[in-house]
């Protein structure tokens, strides 16, 4: 079987093993990023799966595999933003019964408060804060990932942080530092 008759996509494609290795190494990290963006593990799993499918389909065209992590993170982010645009019309409906809430996986009170505060931010502000402060990207890297200017990243980060400070209160940072110093 010559290289022209080999399948270019689907099972048995030449890059399946390479993609499977990448998936195994990075799926957890991408899922964690998606979770920080959306605040729901089930939705984060859906976003990650959709993003990895897009990545798999683009795999043969990815000539610069040294930038794969940045590209994968960008795909997760764009999948999240696109999902939010599509689902804007969906709103929560009030019922007389509380929703079923899954048990948190050893989530600390601090983590829960930060996640809840992140959830009130606009998706773009949330994306900037997750990329800048959880993924530890520079302003320039964040701007490249989001496809915007560095000024937009700075203003979105400033507004997002102001909202978080307002939601979490002035003593939250001091409380968080006190909590971590005892470890």
UniProtKB/TrEMBL annotation:
<protein>
    <submittedName>
        <fullName>RNA polymerase sigma-70 factor, sigma-E family</fullName>
    </submittedName>
</protein>
<dbReference type="InterPro" id="IPR036388">
    <property type="entry name" value="WH-like_DNA-bd_sf"/>
</dbReference>
<dbReference type="GO" id="GO:0003677">
    <property type="term" value="F:DNA binding"/>
</dbReference>
<feature type="domain" description="RNA polymerase sigma factor 70 region 4 type 2">
    <location>
        <begin position="113"/>
        <end position="164"/>
    </location>
</feature>
<keyword id="KW-0731">Sigma factor</keyword>
<dbReference type="InterPro" id="IPR013324">
    <property type="entry name" value="RNA_pol_sigma_r3/r4-like"/>
</dbReference>
<dbReference type="InterPro" id="IPR013325">
    <property type="entry name" value="RNA_pol_sigma_r2"/>
</dbReference>
<dbReference type="InterPro" id="IPR014284">
    <property type="entry name" value="RNA_pol_sigma-70_dom"/>
</dbReference>
<dbReference type="InterPro" id="IPR013249">
    <property type="entry name" value="RNA_pol_sigma70_r4_t2"/>
</dbReference>
<dbReference type="Pfam" id="PF04542">
    <property type="entry name" value="Sigma70_r2"/>
</dbReference>
<comment type="similarity">
    <text>Belongs to the sigma-70 factor family. ECF subfamily.</text>
</comment>
<feature type="domain" description="RNA polymerase sigma-70 region 2">
    <location>
        <begin position="29"/>
        <end position="89"/>
    </location>
</feature>
<dbReference type="InterPro" id="IPR039425">
    <property type="entry name" value="RNA_pol_sigma-70-like"/>
</dbReference>
<keyword id="KW-0804">Transcription</keyword>
<keyword id="KW-0805">Transcription regulation</keyword>
<keyword id="KW-0238">DNA-binding</keyword>
<dbReference type="GO" id="GO:0016987">
    <property type="term" value="F:sigma factor activity"/>
</dbReference>
<dbReference type="Pfam" id="PF08281">
    <property type="entry name" value="Sigma70_r4_2"/>
</dbReference>
<dbReference type="InterPro" id="IPR007627">
    <property type="entry name" value="RNA_pol_sigma70_r2"/>
</dbReference>
<dbReference type="InterPro" id="IPR014325">
    <property type="entry name" value="RNA_pol_sigma-E_actinobac"/>
</dbReference>
<dbReference type="GO" id="GO:0006352">
    <property type="term" value="P:DNA-templated transcription initiation"/>
</dbReference>
